[in-house]
Design a protein that fits this description.
11 helices, alpha/beta, 2 domains, rod-shaped, 13 strands, five-stranded parallel sheet, 372 residues, Alpha-Beta Plaits, Rossmann fold
């Protein structure tokens, strides 16, 4: 409601208009007038008054019809209408109230009654407008909340789908966005872990497909849980082989320690699984290789299918160490050992002449982790 409130006086009697206008102007209201029903409708639409004083008997369109039309057109802001009628015209009062009028005054209009009725109706209008504004604001909040919830649900669904193919860290980085595109090729120092189930090829050649699927299901489930626990990024798995790296796409503290602790946890878990597999006649065990170095990392592939991959000699070194490792053995490179020498007991197994490397490679066999 504006300040001062605007009041429309609609009456075909000039004297009545002058009296009412003088009184309401003295009370501090902004007054506009109309001389007949049609003009009252036009002024009401143009001036948007906060309150209307409406004479019942007017030419062209009477006050009751004006009231009825205004109430049909009225917006949620609510404009109270006070009918002004002769004291003896009770039927006009009833008809006016049924048409939507909110209050009435009888002629001749008492000044005190006029001021009191106007104040009362404007107070009701103010309360009504406040409630309407609050309802509108609540509706806006609800719409915003619904939009945010829908957006968050959609984001969770996107993340859930992405996590089926990418590590949780990479999926979150893709959805969150930021200054750098995590899928764009970039160079970073990482720790790479290769896993391989020794004896799997021979097992797969003789076992039934259901047995192979059962073994791989248990193997992938247990290794996947440990990868997530240690915040590793699964680059790929091919049957019984896996490649995991640390420090990308999200940098982590002590990637060497994370890699070795994850490998030790995997070895402990595979020992349990291997015991069960041997009871079934499956001779399977785990070998691992871990190396540290720089690689180019990003999305590779073609339209419709892309993988997140690391390319560089560090991945070859970890793969060759894994191939060199025997059953239940974790071989680590010299750079890995230098970073975690105080955390592990090792056995020197180098230098090794690894395929693809011209110089012998110093390597270490992780015996066990030292107590914290």
């Amino acid at each position: 409601m504006r300040t001062p409130p605007r009041v429309l006086i609609a009456d075909d009697n000039i004297a009545n208009v002058r009296i009412l206008s003088t009184r309401l102007t003295a009370d501090g209201y902004d007054v506009v007038t109309a001389r007949d029903g049609e003009e009252a409708l036009a002024v009401a639409r143009a001036a948007e008054p906060d309150l209307i004083l409406l004479d019942v008997m007017m030419p062209k369109v009477d006050g009751i019809e004006v009231c009825r039309r205004l109430k049909k057109l009225q917006d949620p802001s609510f404009t109270p209408i006070i009918l002004v009628t002769a004291m003896t015209d009770a039927k006009d009062v009833i008809a006016g109230l049924e048409a939507g009028a909110d209050e009435y005054l009888t002629k001749p209009v008492d000044h005190a009654a006029l001021s009191a009725r106007v104040r009362s109706m404007l107070r009701i209008k103010s309360l009504h407008d406040t409630v309407a504004a609050q309802a509108l604001e609540i509706a806006r909040w609800n719409a915003t909340l619904e939009a945010r919830v829908a957006e968050q649900v959609a984001e969770l669904e996107r993340v859930s789908r992405l996590k089926r193919f990418f590590s949780p860290q990479l999926a979150d980085a893709i959805v969150t966005g930021g200054a750098a595109d995590p899928l764009r090729p970039h160079r970073r120092e990482i720790c790479v872990v290769f896993l391989d189930l020794r004896g799997f090829t021979a097992f797969a050649e003789t076992a039934e497909p259901e047995e192979v699927s059962d073994v791989l299901g248990a193997y992938h489930a247990e290794m996947g849980r440990l990868i997530l626990e240690h915040e590793g990024t699964l680059e790929r798995f091919t049957g019984d082989g896996m490649m995991i790296f640390f420090n990308d796409p999200v940098p982590v503290t002590n990637p060497e320690e994370r890699a070795v602790r994850m490998a030790e946890a995997m070895r402990a878990r595979i020992r349990v699984l291997s015991a069960e597999w041997r009871r079934r006649g499956y001779d399977l065990d785990l070998s691992m290789g871990i190396a540290k170095g720089y690689a180019t990392i990003g999305a590779i592939g073609f339209e419709g299918r892309r993988d997140y991959a690391a390319i560089g000699s560090v991945t070859n070194l970890a793969s060759r160490l894994c191939a060199e490792a025997s059953h239940d053995q974790i071989l680590i490179s010299q750079r890995i050992y230098a970073a975690i020498a105080d955390l592990v007991d090792v056995k020197d197994v180098g230098p090794l002449q690894l395929k693809g490397f011209h110089r012998p490679v110093v390597a270490y066999d992780v015996i066990h982790l030292r107590p914290s």
